[in-house]
Structures are given as C-alpha cells and as structure tokens.
Amino acid sequence: MEFPIKSGSPEKQRSACVVVGVFDNRKPSLSADLIDRASGGYISEIIRRGDMEGKLGSTLLLHNVKGTLADRVLLVGLGKERDFREREFRSAIRAAVRLLNETGSYEAVVYLTEEKVKRREVAWRIEHAVVVAMEAVYRFDQMKSQPAEVRRPLRKLTLSVPQRSDLTSGEAAAARGLAIAHGMDLARDLGNLPGNICTPTHLAERAQALAQELGFKCEVLDREKLEELKMGSFLSVTNGSDQPPKFIVLEYWGAGKKQKPFVLVGKGITFDSGGISLKPGLDMDQMKFDMCGAASVLGALCAIGELKAKINVIGLVPTCENLPSGRATKPGDIVKSMSGQTIEVLNTDAEGRLILCDALTYAERYEPAAVVDIATLTGAMVIALGHIASGMFSNSDSLARALINAGEESFDRSWQLPLWDDYHEGLASNFADFANIAGRAGGSITAACFLSKFSKKYDWAHLDIAGVAWNEGKEKGATGRPVPLLTTWLLAQETPG
Ligand code: BES
Ligand code: MN
Ligand code: ZN
Questions:
Q1: Separation of 274 CA from ligand 3 center, angstroms?
Q2: Is the peptide bond before 25 cis (omega within 30 degrees of 0)?
Q3: Would strands 268-272 and 312-322 be described as parallel, antiparallel, or unpaired?
Q4: Residue 375 CA, ligand 2 centroid: distance in Å
Q5: Active-site residues: which are they?
Q6: Which residues, at least 6 apart from 103, have a Cβ–Cβ distance to it below 8 Å?
Q7: Is the pTM of this model over 0.85?
Q8: What spacing in Å lies between the alpha carbon of 412 and ligand 3's midpoint?
C-alpha cells in the first residue's frame, strides 16, 4: 500500500472516499464540519437523526455528498474528545481501514490524522496511521489452496496533515511507519507458517534472502561449527529432533565499524513440544509460535535496513526444534554451556533459556553497545501481564528506560520486572553450577535470572514476549510484536547527521 501525505480541504478532494471523524456525543471534527458546510448541513442532519453519534470505532459510509468532489464520505466515530489518546486514535484508523478495505474504493484520503492526540505530534499520527493500516489489511493465506480474494483491495491511503509545513516530517514519518509495517509483516508471516515449513533451515534461508535484499552480511553456523564453539547448552535442546539446528548471524553496519553495535538475540524454537518433559496436548499447536522472538529480530533488521539507519545492528538467532526421542535430552542431564558454566536440565521444556544463553555468550565478541534478547520464554509471563505488555528485565537502568520509552512511543509497550539476587536462589543445583528451572512462583523472573548469568559483560535487557507475540482464539495469528518497539528503540540510538 502507498501512503502519500497531503494538506488541503476535505471537500476539495477528488477521491473515492474522504474519511473524517465525529466525536462523541454528536460533535463533528473540524474536517467533518468543512464537509458539512460544503454540503449545506448534510452531515449535521445525519448526526441529528442519530445515525452517527461518534462512538469510538463506529462508521457510516455516505455516497454522493453534495458540495464535495469525492465519491464517498466515511464518518468515523472518535469517542469523547477529551479522551482521544493513542489507543483511541489507533482504533479509529483501524475501523476506517477495515471498512474501506471492504468497499469498492481503491484509495481514500484520511483526515483523522489531523485530530490532536495528547502529547503526540503530527509525525506520530502519520507513523501510527501507516502501521495500523498495514496491520489491518494483513492476511495470511499462503497455505490455503484457494485464497479468499479481496475484490478491490485498498491500494493508496492519502494521509492529511494540518499544514503544508508538516509535509516533510509527515513523509519521513510515513516512511518510518511503512518500514516498521514491513518488518511486522515479515515477523507475522514467519510466525504464522507451520512448524513443518518454518524449520530452522527455512529461517536460515529467509535470513539469507533478507541479507541479499538489504545488503546485510549473513552467516549461518551449522552443527559442526556449534560443536566447535562448545555451545553444549544450545545443542542439548536439538538432540531429539531430526531437523538440523542453525545459528543465524546477521550484520548490518550502517554507521561504520568504529561504532559499537547493538545486538538483538531472538529465540528461534520452530516447535516446542516440551521435549521429554512433554507439554499437554491442548493448544500445543501454538508452540509453532515459539520462534516469534527470532521473527521479531528479522523484522526489526528488515525495518532498519529499509530505512538505511545510521546505526550498527547484529541479529543472532539460535534456532532448532524441541522434540522428544530416544536421543533427546532427559530431565537430570547436565550440559556445559559455551560460557563454561554447567547446567542441570531439570525440565526439558525450559529450553528457550538453554539456547539463548549460548547466543548471549556468542554476543560478547561484538563488544556490544547493548544486547537485547527477545523470547516467548515463559507461560508465567502471560499470567503476569496478559496480552498487553511484554515483560522486560535489565541489568542497566538507562537501557531499561530507553526500552520503556520506545515501547510507549510505538504503542508496543513493555513493563519492567526485577532481577534481584533473592530470586536467583531458586536456581541452585546439587549437581551442576545451577539448574534450568526454579519453582513455579515467579517463573518469568527466575527465567530472566538464568539469562542474566550469561550477560554480565555488557548492558543487557530481556523481553519476554510470550503474551504479546500472537493472538489466540478466532483471531489466532502472529502479531508482529515487538518489531515496533525494537525498531523505535534502535532508531532512537541512531547517530545524528
Ligand atoms: N515456549 C514456552 C513458553 C510459553 C508457553 C509461551 C505458553 C507462551 C505460551 C517455554 O519454552 C516453556 O515451555 N516454558 C515453561 C517453563 C517451565 C518449564 C519452567 C513454562 O512456561 O511452562
Ligand atoms: Mn518450552
Ligand atoms: Zn519454548
């Protein structure tokens, strides 16, 4: 989809559809008012009749409105004017795009981006309009033998800004939004692909294709190389699987080699059965999403590469399957990580931390500015924060702050939890340096504590995305989160000029 930026009056737009807002209760926005005047009070009449009261997300499509040059006018409810914030703005855009995509309009001019959102500039509104619009039209039908066709898909969404002087920043914001959306599309596609197609080998091939397309350096380490590197912890997870493990290394040097790179590490379990500590059958299919951390790393790199950001970013993806077999790792087995620390595997279903810890040790060679790992790590995270925020853990207050800010800015929020020493005690083992699990209580925190034992040499943060990476139920599917958070954070680290 295309997103041109424009400034001008709604009644003068030659378009298939002009989209304007109405506040609750029955209060036309400025642009709705302009249409109303041009049409001799047609909009206020409709509002008076009670067909559009301004409830958030409600829509009313009008045809051939007199005094306007557009074929249609779409009224969108914005909710109460004084409550019009980030969430409400995004809902209004989503409602408009969903409806437009079902009408006969190939294109439309949207005036909702002119409405003030508390604390947010016009650039924020444009960026989010693009991201939300792309999110709303996303479909995953590559596995259907007969994909359902949208008759006239929306191809062009012109976004209006209040003043001509907003055009330049608006265009930059649209480019940013589109890059983030492309990164999310990639992450969603990879997440939605089934485990029999999205194997570690498939992920590696997709990383190589991305590298080719955007000029990254890409290296894929295979089992032999991982043995040489002594990644005994990572390798212990792949024992039960017939699919070969891969360790993907993507490098984007956008700021010259002198600047320290930011490293993203993504959990790439392409299917998590639990291994010998087998999971219950109910909803086990959802464990194909256990590579969404890896997908978000590829997605964020895709966005950064598309924007040619002046920053250095390394993506590390340890990827394998977690399956039971006669060769699988057993509860009680002791493995030696690349760091030299030994781990008693008390539960083979706590496999994410076992592959991540070796990747975190591998990250040391970059002398990174900071390392952020992203993982669907614990079911306990879903219990703690639900599906709204990612859990965030860090050994650096400034890094934590930066991630929280990027999450608020991108509306892809994270919430910090503690890593206090008191929580570490549960990981004690009688046989190895420590175990891979503690008790049930505080499961997300003790998982993060485990990872912190491998990330002492740099500023590090861990994002547990178990609750946000995919939707369940009727809307089952990958969300593309936290690509917006990661990209926004990385862009904020860009060197000026
Ligand atoms: N991939 C799962 C975490 C998960 C479970 C994410 C359900 C989203 C929904 C992870 O590998 C796992 O199995 N974690 C265990 C850890 C436990 C054995 C300490 C869990 O959360 O139950
Ligand atoms: Mn598991
Ligand atoms: Zn897992």
A1: 7
A2: yes
A3: parallel
A4: 11
A5: 279, 353
A6: 17, 61, 72, 152
A7: yes
A8: 22
How many angstroms separate the most distant Cα atoms in the chain?
83
Question: Any idea which residue has 């929280």 for tokens?
Answer: 404
Q: Which residues line the pocket of ligand 1, CB cutoff 6 A?
A: 272, 290, 347, 349-352, 376-380, 382, 437, 443, 466
**Cβ-count burial 220-257 (b if 16+ within 10 Å, e if not):** bbeeeebeebbbbbbbbbbbbbebbbbbbbbbbebbee
| Tokens matching residue 97 | 């795009």
Q: What DSSP letter does each residue of 47-94 carry, written as one string?
A: HHHTS----TT-EEEEES-TT-SSSEEEEEEEEEGGG--HHHHHHHHH
Which residues, in sequence order, are bridge partners of residue 416? 392
pLDDT in tens, the chain (497 residues): 999 999 999 999 999 999 999 999 999 999 999 999 999 999 999 999 999 999 999 999 999 999 999 999 999 999 999 999 999 999 999 999 999 998 889 999 999 999 999 999 999 999 999 999 999 999 999 999 998 876 788 999 999 999 999 999 999 999 999 999 999 999 999 999 999 999 999 999 999 999 999 999 999 999 999 999 999 999 999 999 999 999 999 999 999 999 999 999 999 999 999 999 999 999 999 999 999 999 999 999 999 999 999 999 999 999 999 999 999 999 999 999 999 999 999 999 999 999 999 999 999 999 999 999 999 999 999 999 999 999 999 999 999 999 999 999 999 999 999 999 999 999 999 999 999 999 999 999 999 999 999 999 999 999 999 999 999 999 999 999 999 999 999 999 997 76
Domains of the chain: 5-161 (3.40.220.10), 181-492 (3.40.630.10)
Closest atom of ligand 1 to CA, residue 322? 11
Provide the 8-state DSSP code for 334.
Answer: E
